[in-house]
Amino acid sequence: MINSVRQTVMNILNKDNNGYITPDEFNTFAKQAQLEIFNQYFYDFKNSKLKDMKGMETGGYSDVTKQLDQTIDYFSKNVPLVYDNISGTFAMPADWFLLNVLYYNGKEVTHVNQEKLYYLLNSNLTAPTTLYPTYVLQGDNLTIYPSSITSNIETYYVRYPYDPKWTYTVVNGSPLFNQSANDYQDFELTPSDFPKLVIKICEYAGVSIREQEVVQAAKQEEVYTDQMAQ
After folding, report:
1. DSSP type of residue 164
2. Residue 149 near residue 102 (C-beta atoms within 8 A)
3. Of 164, 180, 184, 196, which residue is least crowded by CB atoms under 10 Å?
């Protein structure tokens, strides 16, 4: 999909001799555009769930909540975590975006806010045990309670999409798409996001080449696309 997106973007920019963006610039804009759309999945999922609760969503092929759930699930991973003896914590994977569930020996570990941890640990009734463990998340590090737990922790999380990269070889002084390059990476979004990717990349490109007409045209198309999707 990435080559088709780039060709479309370049055709739009070249239509009125608006300018040119390099492959590196395209890859930078493509990364940001993909992240924007990826983040929008979660916002749309939340709104769709609210509509579900109000009975405003329909089933079948128009079940937006189900479609978004399946799309987000593509980025889900289940991996074991390694204990760091020095810090006494478990580090989340580098590509994590959202922690869904944490398990210890197959049992779910309960999340607790840092502000409530003191009261939890100092209560005979609520103190964590190996049967009912809890965790605190600070940055990328997880602290599990009780502290005797140093293994058998697994996380089910949503990762970030891989950075897209349009790879190429130079032929007669011009970049030519090369999908066989080792660092090639296509977009990880759905084909239905093709128009949004084109629009957002054009917005970034318009700002880069200081062509306000490109930016405005892209924003108008984005508004129209969003309205059609509602």
Report:
1. P
2. no
3. 180
